Amino acid sequence: MKKLMCRISAFCLAVILGILPLFCINDVKAADDVIRLRVCSWEEYIDEGGWSDDEVIELESGTVFGKQSMIKDFEDWYYETYGKRVKVEYSCFGTNEELYSQLTLGDSFDLICPSDYMIMKLMAEDKLEPLSEDFFDTGNELNYYVKGVSPYINSVFNENEINGESWSRYAAGYMWGITGFVYNPEVVTKEEASTWSLLLNPKFNRQVTIKDNVRDALFPTIAILKKDLLLDDSFVNSKDYQKNLLYEMNDTDESIIDEAEERLKDIRQNVYSFETDSGKADLISGKVVASLQWSGDGVFAMDQSEENDVYLNWGTPEECTNLWFDGWVMLKSGIKGNDDKKHAAQSFINFLSRSDNVVRNMNYIGYTSVISGGDNPLVYEYVDYCYGAEEDDTDVIEYPVGFFFAGDDEDENYILTINPEQADRQLSAQYPQMDVIKRSAVMQYFDNEANDRINQMWINVRCFNLNRISAKQWRTLGIAAGVAAVIIGGIIFGMTFIMTPFWKIHIGVVAAGGVGVYYYINHLRNLIKLNVNPKDYSFRTRRFLGWLAPLKYADDESYQSLQALYAVASGGFSGKGLGNSVQKLSKIPEAQNDMIFAVICEELGILGAGILIMMFIYLIYQLFKIAGRAETVFGRAMVAGIAIHIALQVVVNIFVVLMIIPNTGVSLPFISYGGSAVVFTMAEMGLALAVDREHFKAKVKRKAKQIIEEKELAE
Question: Which superfamily does CATH assign the domain made up of 174-325+372-468 to?
């Protein structure tokens, strides 16, 4: 029986092994029939579908709805239209430079969506596959791009050339826009936001952001340097104004770049930060009052802020603005002369250019498509749907967008009726007025020599240099070093107090320090009596003033501390429940960091806070136990230092929240948000456990030696 079962098993295995290759061959043949299209674009630059029923966009000419991702929709559409399977392998990049690095390192794509200057660079390096003649055939009803692209955008792509060839020969536009300021109109006036000089305005010191990108930072800087020329009537009214504007804004002369470097250094001192994507969140949260943004991101920031009843505006500087484009291009290294791939890539562009898909992507991304729709009114209806005034609104103005949709700004078919405020908000960012378009310029592709000069300038601006540190910055560094010295000194003091018998000396040091602190606090109390302005004193002094007179400086110096106390007080004995804190939502600055104990008190009450404190006490007690039984003096000193360090952090953090001591910005171990603090604290725990492990190893060895010795004596 056993032999029979073995034979049957062997037979079945042979059959499976014989049939399996047939299935594999069929799979290979099936795979060969599928066109694999490798596409790389910006993150979140194509609608991912999954719309709910209430997200449906009802327009006069049709309904727009995204049930599944546009990638999947394209794959299905391509098969239904051409009878061939296509599989899109979709990936994303974060910056144009990142994309170029991927290409340089050997990543291969068929279709990519870089920005204008990268398109120009790839054209200059002969890396792009030209669009086929069939792609521009207006008689083909499936060529949605050429039939629907905006006349204005089409003219820009035709007029801009690299090596005698226009962009339109190699690139199809996708999204476009300008750069300007998103600003809070309650703080920044329209006039202040209408000039690039806002970046240098001392009134808004540390309240404005700029892009951490050499080209997006260089453009406004050149505009600041040439402001007088750009606003001169003879220059503006000249016959070749736009040609001259293009030349001036792309000036890479060595002297201009040197001047730009110095001006950017001044900008760096005045702005809140150079940012890549945080500017929108900083605006929405109120950290900054203005931010240099691409128009699409500006729309996103304005939309998000309105959800919190905060209304931001869009301002386009009067000097000029940067006109930018993202567009689809095919790579020679990917297409490799494969007609099927080229057809699929161009069909992908066309599919995205179909009016309903244009609306889907604009709704999803927030940016402005280059597609106006041609004879299909769906895109225009969507713009009216988003920004048009209601029928019963009486306070309205006319807003022409004909330059984009028809190539004629006077076309009566493309004049929106809007509420006046939209002329300074989302609509003005997405579809600027003609006067803005006239003073817009594309940043051109620079040759290697100019690029090297510009990149070196950017390194000089953005990289740390000791020679550029001001006296004020040196003082700040000195204060920071002093604070660090106090913390480290406290740890050393505690360690030596434990490890040495000279306790009288330690008491003497504490007493001397106490006398110094007493006289300093007395001095500050006298200043408070004199009603001094805290702004006239250093940052550290202001913290002491806020601590000594919290109600007097409730709106500024002691605001954070008072809000924390309110949270503690409102928690009561048992708290409001986990996650139910009100103060953390907007009242307490840095609630997740320095003031996390206040949130714990509010949510868990005195009971929860007391349990947490007991847990810390138990942890510190166990650390001292480990220090006491350590095998070496080094181990004992190290673990004692770790225990003191954690104890100091816990005590200082809790005392700050309870306003027993001035605000210091020390985190609560294991609980406050922050990666580096958690990593180092966990590392300390690992070191302490390692010391204790050595103790137990030594203990086992001693016990074993004792047993052996007792055995030998017994024998």
Answer: Periplasmic binding protein-like II (3.40.190.10)
